[in-house]
Each structure stands twice: as C-alpha cells, then as structure tokens.
Write a structure and sequence with these properties.
Blueprint: E1 3-10, E2 24-29, E3 32-36, E4 55-58, H1 70-82, E5 90-95, H2 102-107, E6 114-119, E7 124-127, E8 130-136, E9 145-150, E10 155-158, H3 167-174, E11 179-183, H4 200-210, E12 215-218, H5 226-233, E13 240-242, E14 249-252, E15 257-258
Parallel strand pairs: 3-4, 4-5, 5-6, 10-11, 11-12, 12-13
Antiparallel strand pairs: 1-2, 1-14, 2-3, 7-8, 8-9, 9-10, 14-15
Helix pairs in contact: 3-4, 4-5
Length: about 260
C-alpha cells in the first residue's frame, strides 16, 4: 500500500525535558526518509545506521532548537561510512542566508558524509514523485521556511516556526492539506506579546481556513499541559491530535489515517 509514515521526534521548545525533545519530524515514504528539522535530543529516537540511508535533512531556520542535533547526524554519517555501513551521502538542505554563523558552522564540519543544498523562497525539488517546496513565512523573528510535501495522494505541510502577521499567505500555502503539522507555542491565557509564534487557537484557525483534513499540534512550552493546547485549538477545528515523541501517524493512499 502507498503510505507515508510521520514520526514526531521532538515536540517542545526551547529546551529538552524528560523524554521530550526540541523540534524534529521523520517522514518515511517508499524507501526515502526526510527529516524535518533536527532539534536537540531527536537523535535518541533515530535508528542508526538504518535511518541514515536515503536520508534528506531539511533545516527550516537557524534557531538552535531546530538544528541542535545536526552535528550528531553529521558525525554519525561519517562514522558509519568509515565502517562501510553507509554508501551514499546524506543530503542536508539549509537556508541560503546565514544567521549568527550557524550555517557556516554546519558547512565547516569535515567529519560528515554529506552533501549540502541551499533553500530560498519558493524553491522546490523532487524525491521520486514527492515534490518538496518551501515558503518563507515572513512572520517569524528570522527567515524561516514552511515545507510542503506533496504528490497525487498526499499534501503535508510542516509550518516550523510561524506567527500570524502573514496569515493569508499561510492559509494559501496550506490549502486542502491532508495534514498540517503546526506550531502552537502559546495558549491565549499566556497573553504573549509575541507576533512571531502562534497560539493553539491560531493553529486551529489555520487548519479551518485552509480546509485541511487533519491538524497535528507541536512546538509546545515544556512546562505546559498539552491537553490545554488541544482544547484551545478545538475551538476552531475538530480533527486534531497532539504530537507525541515516537507516536507515528500513517497517511494511506485512500486518504484514511491509521495508527
């Protein structure tokens, strides 16, 4: 059966707590793997060296909670290649414009069996029949890319970090998605002054306006009860799940979801 498996590896920010990691989602489609962000701690849920094979890593922006484990993935690729257990380089996609020399530090890592590619606004590439496209959401504190993975059966959007200042464009990018993996950093009770992150209420509204089939909430405050995010998002959208480390979501060709 043609299916896509999505495994949350990290769901909180800006720091680790207990079994929860900073942002990262592993997408498995056919024989390919796509890692959406590589936050602190996510490598403890990866299966090395198997998950290094046919692996594409995409870093959405240069905040450290979204790429804190990239050096570990690089080093793992280097070691397993030297052991004869990894024959093809992993692919790492990075925003073209650096921030705080973070890109430079990644590129200068010589102990890595990797190829590097740059991301700019509206770029896209294919892995087989799966088209992967990028949109600078223009609503985070630094350049940050939303990612869309789409073929004739699925349309999955990973928002990474977004705010609400460019909401109409976000709705357009997410339109008719099978699944939106959406940041929901805050609850309305927090009364946050931030315009560069969403509340769970905003995430539910995005799914509603986009006519999405399903919403997966992520990017939670580590000290907050996740059930409150679910309750708040459901004021605007019904088919919602809270992302949990290592709990898979399976999208099947029929459009149905399985566990």
């Amino acid at each position: 059966m043609n299916e896509m498996i999505i495994t949350p590896l990290g769901t909180i920010s800006p720091y680790l707590k207990e079994s929860m990691n900073c942002p990262g989602f592993l997408v498995e489609y056919k024989d390919e793997k796509v890692l959406l962000d590589c936050g602190n701690g996510i490598t403890r849920y990866l299966d090395f060296p198997n998950d290094l094979k046919n692996l594409t890593v995409i870093i959405t922006h240069y905040h450290k909670d979204h790429f804190g484990d990239i050096g570990l993935v690089q080093y793992a690729s280097y070691v397993y290649h030297n052991l004869g257990l990894l024959n093809e380089k992993i692919k790492i996609f990075l925003p073209k414009r650096d921030f705080g020399l973070n890109k430079e530090s990644i590129l200068l890592n010589d102990e890595s069996y990797s190829d590097y590619f740059e991301i700019e606004n509206n770029d896209s590439f294919h892995i087989g029949d799966l088209k992967i496209s990028f949109l600078d959401n223009q609503s985070h504190s630094i350049e940050s890319y939303m990612i869309k993975l789409m073929n004739e059966n699925f349309k999955v959007v990973y928002t990474s970090d977004i705010g609400t200042t460019n909401f109409d464009q976000l709705v357009e990018f997410c339109q008719n998605s099978s699944l939106i993996i959406c940041e929901s950093s805050f609850l309305r009770k927090h009364n946050s002054l931030s315009k560069t992150h969403m509340t769970a209420y905003d995430a539910g509204l995005l799914a509603n306006k986009s006519k999405a089939e399903r919403l997966l909430l992520t990017h939670f405050w580590p000290e907050e009860d996740k059930r409150l995010y679910l309750e708040e998002a459901k004021q605007n959208f019904e088919n919602i799940e809270v992302a949990k480390e290592n709990k898979q979501i399976i999208l099947r060709r029929t459009g149905e979801y399985g566990k």
